[in-house]
Amino acid sequence: MDAQKSRTVRLLFFSTCYSLSRFCSKLKHLDLTSCVSITNSSLKGISEGCRNLEYLNLSWCDQITKDGIEALVRGCRGLKALLLRGCTQLEDEALKHIQNYCHELVSLNLQSCSRITDEGVVQLCRGCHRLQALCLSGCSNLTDASLTALGLNCPRLQILEAARCSHLTDAGFTLLARNCHELEKMDLEECILITDSTLIQLSIHCPKLQALSLSHCELITDDGILHLSNSACGHERLRVLELDNCLLITDVALEHLENCRGLERLELYDCQQVTRAGIKRMRAQLPHVKVHAYFAPVTPPTAVAGSGQRLCRCCVIL
């Protein structure tokens, strides 16, 4: 897109936001996903006239900075859901502005906002005690300090997505579990430092847990699954469990999961110690469970001289 066209698009979006502000004062729900020409000025226009806004999706609007967020939340103090996925210019100060003005906020998505650090999350938690859903996936700078802040300030938390937050440990999740008993869904994919200790704490303190992703958590073992399956959430609530690339999981874990009578979906891709026979035995007890797994075809032995060409079943000659 040349400079002139780009300027035209920016003016169009500014004009649209100005019109929304002027003529839609009762607007409550606005989705601007991937409107990449949205700028800080656009948000200022929205904030001046759409003060009843409760839901705003700005995902992948990557020109937005802390200044735009400040302008927005000063005017739209009743926001309950704010989606900022892929707003890669946002820094901790943006969360400070949200904390200062959005005390009704219950859902915040910060996926792939990679500049966010513990400082911003701590600030956020101090002012947004009603948070029920928080996505921090891809915020790779975060440590247990963020989990501590959530545990001490956000007891209503139901959904936490922290995929690819590779610095989080058992210590942080222990404090979180002991204080956030309403947790229903957790995405901990690639939280590579956590062990069975985290599962033990979730089993004890989070009886409402329904969906748990542990993909690529390579320190999880059958013993952790035992505690999970014998817990209140395992017996009554657990519906989805993702264990892709958990290399220490074996058929023994599947035997434990037979206690999870409500389980609906189990992900086992690249769990190399799980066998077809183990899955078959589990499904005999839980026939309604959808199990997703992959078993690489056995490669035939190398052809001897003079015989025809042989290929494994996953190969195709083009």
TrEMBL record:
Cross-referenced PANTHER family: F-BOX_LRR-REPEAT PROTEIN 2, PARTNER OF PAIRED, ISOFORM B-RELATED
GO cellular component: SCF ubiquitin ligase complex
One Pfam family matching this protein: DUF7885
InterPro entries: FBXL15_LRR, Leu-rich_rpt_Cys-con_subtyp, LRR_dom_sf
Protein name per UniProt: F-box/LRR-repeat protein 2 isoform X4
Organism: Sapajus apella (Brown-capped capuchin)
GO biological process, one term: SCF-dependent proteasomal ubiquitin-dependent protein catabolic process
Sequence ranges assigned to domain F-box/LRR-repeat protein 15-like leucin rich repeat in this UniProt record: 12-152, 154-278
